[in-house]
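Open question from group meeting: does this chain pack into something compact, or does most of it stay loose? Before anyone orders reagents, we agreed to write out a predicted structure and look at it together. Recording both the input and the output here so the notebook holds the full record.
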Amino acid sequence: MKRVLQILALVAALGVPAVWLATGANRGWTKTSVPVKTLDEVTGIEGISYQKKFLPGVDFLGAGFGGAAVLAGASLFFRKPKNKNQQKQ
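Structure tokens returned:
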């Protein structure tokens, strides 16, 4: 169980930054919509409309690394199994 938690912590610690980079690497807070400039065809006036898009921010990184730290810390509560075949001297 100890090794499983350590592997999961490593996967999380490496996977979270990869997902963050692949989805836009927003250096602010996580956003669920982004402003998009639009041009009115009739009047020619520029406006701003919002498009739904998920951009994970630094809070996403913090939560991911925090989860990895919890998994790694939980692995410390498990001991290595003792070898039953060990001979007494």
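Observations to bring back to the group:
Residues 2-22 form the longest helix (21 residues).
Residues 47 and 69 are 44 Å apart (CA to CA).
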